[in-house]
Please model this.
Amino acid sequence: MTSQRILAITQDAALRERLNRLLEEFAKRFDVTFAENRPEAEQALFSENPDDPALALALVDDTLPDVDEASFLVRLHREPRTRWAYKVLILKDPDVDILLKAVNHGGLDFCFSGEWEDSVFVETVRGLLTEYILDHRTLSTDDKMSYGEVLESERFLHFVHSSALTSWSNR
Model:
C-alpha cells in the first residue's frame, strides 16, 4: 500500500499538541508528521528517499520563523511532488495579504482563522482527505479501500458501490 502523509507545520507548542490530539484518528492510516520550521518541513517533504510517504495534506500556521506561510504554500503548490496535496492555513489573526497570496498563488484549500471548533477541524480534514484518497489516480482500489475507516462514510460507501458496479459490469 502506498503511504500518505499529513504534515503539520507549527512552532506553537499548544497548537501542535491540539493538532496531535485532533489528528490521532487519522494516524491509523496516514503518516502524521510535525515540523516546527521550514527546514524540518522541507526535510520531511523533499528528501530523496522514494519510500517516503506522499503528501496528502499540509497544515501550516502563522508561527513559521523566517518565512511567510503563504510563500511556503506557494512552494508546495509549485513542486510536482506536493502540488496535489491539500493545503490548510491556520491563522491566529486574519491577515488579508497572506490569505490572498495563499489563495491566488498557493492553491489554498481551506483556512481557519481566529478561534475554531475541534469538530469543524476534524470534519474539514476528513473531507479533504476523502477527496484526496478517492481522487488519487495512482492509488489502486484496494489501497483506497484501506483508508475507509477514517474517510467520510457516505462518500466512501458511494465509492465502494461505484467500484463494485464497475467491476461487475466488466465481467
Notes: The two ends are 25 Å apart (CA to CA). Helices lie at 13-22, 38-46, 69-78, 96-106, 118-135, 141-146, 153-169.
